Amino acid sequence: MSNLRVRNQNQQAPVQWREAPTVTTPVDPDHIEPGKIWNSIWTRRYPILALVVASVVVASVVAHKLTPVYAAQSVLVIQPDDPSLLQKERVADNNTTITVSDYVMTQMALIQSRVLAERVVTQLGLDKTPEFDPRQQTSLLGKVHNWVGHLIPALAPSDDHPLTDTEAFNAATKKFMDQTKIAAVGKSQLVGITVAMTNPELAADAANGLANAYIARQQETRVGGAKETTEWMDGRMVELKAALKASEDKLQKYRDAQGLVDVGGATGGVSTITSNELAATSDRMIDATRQRAEAESQWRQIQGMKGAGLERLASEPAVMQDPVVQQFRAEVAKAQATVDEMSKRYGDKYPAMISARSDLNAAKASLNSQVQQVVGGIQRNYQLAVANEASLRSSVNTSKNQIQDISRKEFQLRDLQRDVDSNRQLYDSFQSHMRETAATGDIQAQNIKVVDPAIAPFLPYSPNKPLIIFIAAVVALLIGVGWALARDAIKNTFRTSDDIRKQINLPIWGVVPMLRKRRNQTIGQQYELNEDGPFCEAIRTLRTNVMLNDSYASNKVVVMTSSIPGEGKSAIAVNLAFALGKLERVLLIEADLRRPTLARNLGLTGTSLGLADLIAGHAKPEECIQSFGRIDMLTVGTLPENPLELLASPRFGQFLEWVKGNYDRIIIDTPASQAVSDAALICTLADSVIYVIKSQSTSVALAQKGINQLVQSGAPMRGVVLNQVDLLQNPNQNHLGAYEHYGALQIQ
């Protein structure tokens, strides 16, 4: 025993409490320690597992009670009516591009229309089934309301406004539309109609009914449209026929009024005849103009020689060209030659001469007469040519006026003819289209048909029980993990000895692990029973620190306290007493006069006298102190009504002085310092105070407050015991106690 009592050779003063220094080491707020996260989860693995199991059980029960829903699908093929859409695309009149996918999407929207849904609901009578009729359904809230109404009639639900048949039908239609899904099958022209219901046969009938209703609706639309078109075209044909007849009558009436005859079978026949006449007259007028010019030239020549005499006129080309003039000129020349020849031989009185001269004069007279006749003929020819030209010119002008008048009439005639032709063409087109519509209106379209009718499904698609259970388990696991992490993040407690160094700055005298097999009945005798090796080793380490910190004879009275009840200080005190009892004479005093537990935990059933009876003067020490194994102990005894007054009485101090002379170590178990003020009073009488902190339970602020209050009251704080450390969560604490005594050698 003397070998264990080692003193500090430097004779340092006992350690004094001080506030923990501010940690200046920079901390990365984004740093996450995986080890701490895993430790937090592992520590609370059982509550998390319980939550997961409970969630799985609840999800299984709920999934089992859910009504199964069956989905039936009918597949249609929808091909465009317009063959141009079978090409890549077609451009509509408003410059928008229409593709096959656009056409299919439009048809899908038509399948989802309320008109078809109402037709199926009516055909299958869905509005009378419990699944779709809201009057036959009761929600969970409604069931609760009805149940409350049975218990409290005043709260019974009233049926003042029941649903009408129309409202129930609309609600059933709305629900049927919600349970119907229309989707394209891949990138094809196939469209799937899926209906989900609790009745598999009814779901298949509804899917097929919706497909057939859509095809029937398309056929009705096609036939109805053709009928309406035929009726409209019949009325339009009557109007067009009347318009054509009116235009033809108007054309013929105009021809009759204007006296126009279409010789060539066309409107240009009359103008053609007039144009030919004008051309011939124009040709004759050109000839007359030429003749007039020639006659005028001859006439002008004669007029120019008017005073020159007949002989001179006879030499003019226009006159000389006349054969009679030429003959008479030859006779004159011949007679003149005879006269000239006879004048050389005969005299003027010679009969032959006279006869010759008479012949010459006769010839000249004939010539002059003929010249005058020729000149008169030239004048008459000129006058006739002028008159002829004037007549032809007048005829040409008249023909031109006639042609212009005929052209104006032909313009009007062509307008009337165009009206006739346009009305006839429109009439013929409508007649042809009407015949085509009447011939094809009753033919059923083959571009939409059912390729895969729906059949009653064997297995429900909802609810997916394994998926529900799996999701419930995952959600519960996430909630449990989140709860564990959030609790550790919010709860500012001590986990390791490093936390105590940083927050309290007192020596750590022991790190006591959590018992692997906790038994409340024997927790005070764990050291004696030696059932948990790490626990017993931690108690030995605590004993070593207590003995190594002896300072002369001032460390005899050791007080064990904590912040609040339940931190294990009583169990630490009892086991420390048993550990010291193997080396020293030890007295264990239970000073918790309010909630004593020592006698019950150790199974003491002897005398009922104890510390309260001793301080009150009702018993002597030898009557109250009991032996238990190698230690003596003093229980509370009779519970007093004034525990604080008893502890504050001089008898308690005198008793401690007496036991110091009879025992090597006195271990006092006090109440929690933050519960009552008894601990503060007892700690002032102690030589050493050991503060017990429960790992991951005692808050930092509470421990700091408790220790600060004890220091301020003069308590000799020596060290801290970190109790109930989970070694699985904090494996680095497993061997800490084995090395703590090296630091304890430096502290007094």
Can you offer a commentary on this structure?
The protein has 748 residues and is an alpha/beta fold. It folds into 4 domains: 34-64 and 463-488, no CATH class; 66-228, no CATH class; 269-440; 509-744, P-loop containing nucleotide triphosphate hydrolases (Rossmann fold, 3-Layer(aba) Sandwich). 56% of the residues lie in helices and 10% in strands. It is built from 25 helices and 14 strands. The longest helix is centred in the middle third of the chain and has 90 residues, at 351-440. The protein is rod-shaped.
Widest sheet, order of strands: 7-14-13-8-12-9-11-10
Number of helical segments with 4 or more residues: 25
Low-pLDDT residue intervals, each spanning 5 or more residues: 1-31, 85-93, 263-267, 735-748
Indicate the overall shape.
Answer: rod-shaped
CATH topology of the largest domain: Rossmann fold
Give the helix level as a range of percent.
55-70%
Quantity of strands, as a count: 14
Which range does the strand content fall in?
5-15%
Secondary-structure-derived class: alpha/beta
Q: What about the largest sheet?
A: 8 strands, mixed
CATH architecture of the largest domain: 3-Layer(aba) Sandwich
Radius of gyration over all CA atoms, rounded = 71 Å
**CATH class category name of the largest domain:** Alpha Beta
The assembly state of the depicted protein chains is single chain
Average pLDDT taken over every residue: 77
